[in-house]
Each structure stands twice: as C-alpha cells, then as structure tokens.
Amino acid sequence: MFNKTTNSRERLQWIDRTKGLAILAILFFHFFQNYPEQINIVSMLNRNGARLGYAAVDIFFVMAGFNTSYVLASLIQNGEKINWIAWLKKRLFRLYPTYFLAVLSTICISILFNQFHIKNPLNFALSAVGLAGYKFQAINQGFWFFTVILEAYLLTPLIFYVCRNKPNRILGLGILIGLLTKLACLAVGHKSEFYLFLLQNNFIGSYFFQLCLGLYWGFIYASNKSFRRTDINISTIVFIVALILYIWMAIKHINIVYMLGFDIAFTPFFFVMLSLILNKDNHNRWLNYGLSILSIMGIYSYQIYLIHQPLYITLLYYLNKRIQIAQYPKLLVCLIITAVVLIAYIRAFVLIEKVMIRKITGTAAKQS
Fold first, then answer.
1. Contact call for residues 130 and 147 (beta carbons, < 8 A)
2. Membrane-crossing residues (predicted)?
3. Taking Cα atoms as reference points, which of 137, 138, 277 lies closest to residue 201?
4. How far apart are CA 144 and CA 54, in angstroms?
5. Beta-carbon contacts of residue 275 (< 8 Å; ≥ 6 apart)
6. How far apart are CA 268 and CA 274, in angstroms?
7. Which is nearest to 141 in space by CA: 152, 127, 121?
8. Measured at the alpha carbon of residue 265, what is the angle toward residues 194 and 188, in degrees to the nearest 5?
9. Rounded average pLDDT per 10-residue block, the chain, 368 residues
C-alpha cells in the first residue's frame, strides 16, 4: 500500500492496478460495514464485502514484500551489501509524515462531528505514534494497518539475515510462521482474548506468510520478468483444493473463518491471477480508462486507506439521520454523497501531504 516506489527498476503498471483494485474492495467493504441501517442488501454486501476486504488486505502485505525484494534483488544477486539502516530510514520517512497527517485529519473530523473523546490517554498516545494496533486503538480502527506494516518493515532485515537472502528459505519461513500462528489461534480457542489478537489486525504474525510470499515472489519476478509456470500451477492447485474444502464446509454449515488458513491457501492464487489479468494492455478505451483510475487509486492507496474510514463513520451517521426518504433511495444518495466527499477529501489530503513532504525534505536538505 505504498505509492511512488523508489527504485531503479521500471515501474510495473500491474502493481498500481492491483493496489487500486485492493483499495477499491476495502472501500466497498467499509462502506457497507459502517452504513448505520442494516437493511437486507447492506447486511448481505457487508458479509460478502468482509471476505473481499480480508483478501484485499492480504494482497497489500504480499505487495509490501514484493516491492521490497523486487528492488533489492539485483543488489543481492550482485553480492552487494544492503544498507538496512538507510533502507529503514527511507521506509519510515515514507510512512510516518503521512500517518501523522492522517492522525491530525482524523481528529479534526471527529471534532467537526462532535465525536472526539479521549477515553484512555495511554491508548491515545500509542495510537498517535502508530503503535496501538487494533486492540488498543483510540483514534481510528483502520490505523491498525500502520502498526502491522511498521512491524513488517522492522522485521524485514531480520528475515533476510535469518534466511541468508535465499528466496526459498524466506518462503519456507513464511509458511512455517504462518501455520504456527493459525495453530496458536486454534490452541487458545475463539473465546480467548488472544484469539482475535493472533487472528488478525494486531501483529505481523497474522500476515507473516503474505509478507514472505511477497518477498519470495519479488526475487522471482526480478529474475524472470514474470511469474513462472510453476508458481501459477502450485498456486492454482492449492486454491482448488482449499476451495473444495471451503464449499464442503459451507454445505455442512460449518463456521468458516477465512483468516484461519484460507488466507494462506487463497492469497497466492489471487495475487498471481491479478498480476496476469492486470498486466495486459487493452485496446478498449473504456477499459483503459477504468485501468487508469485503478492505477491512480493504487498510487494513493496508502493515503486512501488511512483516511477513508473515519469519514465513513462520521459522514454516514450524519447523512443517515438527516436524509428522510425510503431506505433504498437513501442508501443510493448516501453512496453518491460519500463518494463525492471522499474524492474531495483525498484530493485535499494529498495536496497538503505534498506541501508538507516538500517542506520536510527542504528543511532536511538545508540542515545536511
């Protein structure tokens, strides 16, 4: 979920398009999740959107790993030493200024809609510096992503060190830690307070496989300029086997928890298929227009992710109280208004962010 990847390699269009599609799925899910009236269509779209949202978040973690190793692969293959301190500084500089701006804008929105309260000062402070995860979040539940992606970047040098820069070892470690995390969830049981903590949204263990898969595939793609037939075949076989199990469980009315292993089984197939589909140029003008929109959304997916949910929560509640028409027309009106306001909000946020980054960069250059 990171825009303007700074690397010496050619920018891959399908990366931006994939990120755009993933953030669109998350916007879709969160709209219906936060819509105040749970009428039938909203409940149905909320349930199905949740699956889309989970899959989209997984894609972002794969992407984070992919971008990292895709950029570093040539250095490693040439036997050059990676300056991890400089790499981490660059990641933190990319993450934190935008995050702090998102914190400030979220607080402003909460004050504007009279919903700003500090219930726990410690949790608020942890949230403000991006260390609260989901469990201790006090500003915006969506900020859990920042905590976990921060953990991912802090762990990345250690992953490379432990695996001695070998892609196969990185993938193997990802599978091992990923499965151990799922087993830990099963061991503590769904009634335990640690269950949800381990399952999702709180620490990198929940997405360790996705991160390592991305790191592995970044190497592969850098070497082959595409995914190999082996990658596609294995991803497809694993997906089909897991899908059969998924359908069987649905038929038997067994409670399906996507993050209890189906994420590991489905994510490789989703990612590799998206890369194949979105990597193709198309001569249809309208389709190209749609792909261009996805690319723009992908470029700014990090900003969109950080700021959209507080706007949804406050604006949808406000609109729902004041628009007094039938349920379904009201849903449509709220959808349109929210989309328009969100686009304007993102545009303003990005403009302010650019000015802020320019000033920070200028100040740093003067001091050096």
1. yes
2. 12-32, 52-73, 93-113, 143-163, 170-189, 195-220, 232-251, 257-279, 286-308, 328-350
3. 137
4. 14
5. 14, 18, 227
6. 10
7. 127
8. 20
9. 48 91 92 86 74 88 95 85 93 95 95 88 96 91 94 96 95 96 92 86 91 96 92 96 95 90 95 90 80 94 95 92 90 95 96 92 73
d(CA 271, CA 149): 18
Q: How far apart are CA 326 and CA 41, in angstroms?
A: 14
How far, CA to CA in Å, does 51 sit from each of 22, 257, 259?
12, 10, 10
Q: Long-range contacts for 93-101 (Cβ within 8 Å, ≥24 apart)? A: 94/2, 95/130, 95/146, 95/149, 95/150, 95/153, 96/130, 97/353, 97/356, 97/357, 97/360, 98/302, 98/303, 98/306, 98/353, 99/130, 99/143, 99/146, 99/306, 101/349, 101/352, 101/353, 101/356
Query: Cα separation of 115 and 134, whole Å?
Result: 19
Predicted TM-score (pTM) of the model is: 0.90
Chain centre distance of CA 91: 16
The single-letter code of the amino acid at 229 is: R
Please list the alpha-helical segments (H only) found in the chain. 13-34, 40-77, 84-112, 121-128, 144-162, 167-188, 193-199, 208-224, 229-251, 263-278, 285-299, 301-322, 327-367
Instruction: For residue 122, give the DSSP letter.
Output: H
- Closest-CA residue to 27 (of 287, 264, 300): 300
Instruction: Quote the CA–CA distance of 220 and 227 in Å, as a whole number.
Output: 7
* Phi, psi (degrees; rounded to nearest 5) at 87: -65, -45
Which H or E element spans position 259? none
